[in-house]
Amino acid sequence: MNKQSPSQNDIPVKTQSRNVLYAQAGGPTAVLNASAIGVIEMTKRHPEKFDKIYAAINGIKGVLEETLTDVTGLSECIMDCLRDQPGAAFQACRFDLDPVEDNPTQYQRVLDVFVTYDIGYFFYNGGNGSMVTAQKVADYCSERGHPVTCIGIPKTIDNDLAHSHCSPGYGSAVKYLATSLLESTIDLYSMHNTSTKFFALEAMGRNVGWLALAGGLLKLQCPDVPLIVLTAERPFDKAKFLAKVAHFYDTKGYCTCIVSEGLKDADGNYIKIENIEHTHLKDYVQLGGVAHTLSKMVADHFTCKTHSAVPDYMQRAASHLVSETDWQMAYRAGKAAVQAALDGKHGVLPVIEVIAHEPLVWRYKTVDLMEVADLEPTVPDEFITEDGMDVTQAAIDYLLPLIKGEKSIRYVNGLPDIHPLKFELMPKQLTEFIAVK
Amino acid sequence: MNKQSPSQNDIPVKTQSRNVLYAQAGGPTAVLNASAIGVIEMTKRHPEKFDKIYAAINGIKGVLEETLTDVTGLSECIMDCLRDQPGAAFQACRFDLDPVEDNPTQYQRVLDVFVTYDIGYFFYNGGNGSMVTAQKVADYCSERGHPVTCIGIPKTIDNDLAHSHCSPGYGSAVKYLATSLLESTIDLYSMHNTSTKFFALEAMGRNVGWLALAGGLLKLQCPDVPLIVLTAERPFDKAKFLAKVAHFYDTKGYCTCIVSEGLKDADGNYIKIENIEHTHLKDYVQLGGVAHTLSKMVADHFTCKTHSAVPDYMQRAASHLVSETDWQMAYRAGKAAVQAALDGKHGVLPVIEVIAHEPLVWRYKTVDLMEVADLEPTVPDEFITEDGMDVTQAAIDYLLPLIKGEKSIRYVNGLPDIHPLKFELMPKQLTEFIAVK
Predict the structure, then answer these.
(1) Shared-domain flag, residues A141 and A178
(2) pLDDT tens digits, residue range B98-121?
(3) B265 and chain A: CB distance < 8 Å anywhere?
(4) Which end of chain B is least crowded, N or C, by CB within 10 Å?
(5) Which of A190, A292, A311 sits opposite B28 (nearest CB)?
C-alpha cells in the first residue's frame, strides 16, 4: 500500500476517477497485445476509478515525446485486431530512463506529461528493468504532488520471470518451437535413409534454456525420437555431443536437435559462426549461428548431409499458432494489473501462482517489482538429464499445460488478417522534447 | 498410348486387374501425402483395373530392397493421419538408378520385384529426374514381357515444374513464408524506433526465386511495406541494395527483406557466410547463410541492430499451415495420375492447366515425362520489378490464388497430432539385395 492519497498533495485533483496510461517495452511476444485488451476492458468496467485510457506509442520514450493515443473508445474492430496482433501494437521501446540524479530533466518531463493528461495510473507491460524504472518515475511524480500508481505487467518469451510459474508469451513460443521441430523431424525421418541425417533448430535464449526445452515435447508424439536438447545452462562438450549423435545414428539412423542460441563451451565462449559479429556492437554479442555450427560439425565429422534452421523473430511473432492457455495468461495479466490498482497496490507485478496441477489451475497474485528486478531464473537441474543433453519427464510435465489449446484466427486472402496498426496521436500540448541519450 | 497389352507377352497374366506400386522420392512438401491419398482412393474405386496397392518404403531404393507395404486396406485412421502428415509418409529417397548399360543388375532386380508382386502400374511421386528413371524401369520391364504402366506425380516446393501452372507443394510453402514474414515484419515495425531496423528471411531456392516471391504478398495487407525481395534470378548488387535500405530507413524507419538462399553476385559467387561449407561435399555447395550475411552487411553499414531467420525445413514441413488450394492440387495430382493410367497412358505426368483466372479454375492434363525432364523454369521477368528488388502486381496476382484456404488439423496435447508413421513390411520373397552405388 504505497499509494498516496491525493489529499496529501497541493495540486488539486479534479475528480475521483483519474486517467490511465498503458505502455509496452522490450521484445514482444505473440500474445503481448492480449494484455492490452485486458487492461482496456478491465479499466472500462470501473468508471468510478478510471476515466480516460491512453496508450503511449513507443513506451516510456513515447511518454517523453508525448506521442499518446486515446484508446478509451477503441472500436470493436480494432479490439478484434489486437486479439491476433503479433509484435507490440503500441510499439515497444528498448529505452530506459537514466538514473534520476544523472538526468532529472527526463523525470520532470514525465511529470509534466502526467500532470497535463492527469495520469493517475501507469501500467507498464515490459521487462523487469523497465518496469522498475516506471515505478521510480511514478514515485518521483507522487513525491512532487502528482500521485501515480504504477503496476507492471509481465511478458517475455524467455520465461526468466522470478516468482511466477511461467511468463505470459512463453507458452506460445514453446508451442511454436515444438510444432516446428516436430514437423521438421518428421521430414528428416522421411529422408534420412539416403539424405539428411541431422537437423538442428536454434531457439532464442541468451542465458537461459527455457525455450530449448520445447524440443522435449516431441516425446509426447514420438517417445523414442532420437533427440538432443542443448540448453544455455550446460557447457557444450563436443566429444560427448558427437558420441550421442553417433549413438542415435547407430540405433535410429538419424538425430534431431534443439539448441539455445546462447550455448557456450566450458570456457564460456559462445558456440557460433566465426565472423558473424556485427562490427559496431561493442558490449553486445550478436548471437545466431549455433545451429549452423553444430550442423557443420556433424556434417564434417560423420561425412553426412545435415540441415539447420534459425526461426529468430518467427518464434515470438507467430500469432497464427498461439497457445490458448498462454493467450489467457497474457489477457488476465492485464486484468490482474488493473485489479491490483483497484486494490490500492503500487509498485507491484502480477505473477502466476499455481493452485493445482493436472489439470493446471492458476491465478495471479502480486509481488513487489523490486523483488523480481534483477533475477533471471535459469532452468532447474531437475528439468535436464544427467548427460546435459535431454529433458526429463518433470520438464515435459511443466511444459505441457502451457501449450494447451488453439486459437482460431481470421484469414483474408490466405494470410492472417494482420498489419501494423496505426493509431491517431493526441494533439501535443507541451513543447517538443527529444528523447535521446 | 505406349501401354502394351498382356497378350503380347509370354508370362501369363492371371487376372485383368493388376497390382499398383506407389513410391515417393526427393525433397517432401507439406502436402505430398495428399497425393498418396489421391492414388489410394482412386485406384480403390476401380477394382476392375487395380487389385492390390503397394507402397515402396524409401522410393526406388525400397523397390530394389523389397521393402514394400500393402496399403490396400489402410485403416481410415491411418488415411486420416496421411491428410496432415508432413514429410514423405512412405519415406523418400535421394537415390536414382544408374544408366541401364552401367548397372543392368539393378533393372533386373526391379523386374524381379515387379514380377513377384505382379506390379502393373507404377506411380512415382518424385522429382523430374527420378520419374524419368521410373519410366525407363517400366519400359525395361515391359520389353522383357512384364508390362508396366508408369505415371509420374509432381511435387516440389521449388515450383520449377515446366508446363504446369504451378507445382503441388509450392502454394503451402508460399503461404507459410508470407505468413512468417508478415508476422515478423509487424514485430520489426513495433520495435524499429529504438531497436532492430532490418530483418531478412531466407527462402529456399538454389537456382530459382519462386519461393522468395512469397514476400510480395505482404503488400496485400500492408501496401506501403518497406520490402526488398531478392531472387536467385537477379545478381546481387551491394551498392544498390544498401541504397534501397537507406531509402526505406529515410522514409519508413525500417526495412524487411526476403531472399533466395541461392542469391549470387554478378560473378556468380554465392552471397553466404564464409567458412560454412561442409568440408566433405565436393560437388555440392551447402547453402544457408545469405540472410545472416545481408543482416551483418546492413548492421555494419548503418550501425544499427538487425536480425535474420532461416526457416529451412520448416518451410516445407509446416503441415499446420497449408493452403487448402495447394492441398487439393496435391490430392488431385494423385487422382489425375490414376486417371491417366485408366486412360491407357504411360510415361506421362499430370500438370496443372488453368481454364480461368479470377477465380482460378484449373484442371490436370498430362504431358510426356521427357518433355519436362531437364527443364527448370525460372521466375519470369514480368514478376520482378526493374530494379530487381521487388515483385510486380503480376507476381501477386499469380501467387494469391495458390495460398487461398486453410485446413484445420487435429491437435493433441497442444501439438499437431502427427508422428513418423511406420508401416508393416511385406514378408520378403526374394533374396537380399543391397542398393548401394
Answers:
(1) no
(2) 999 999 999 999 999 999 999 999
(3) no
(4) N
(5) A190
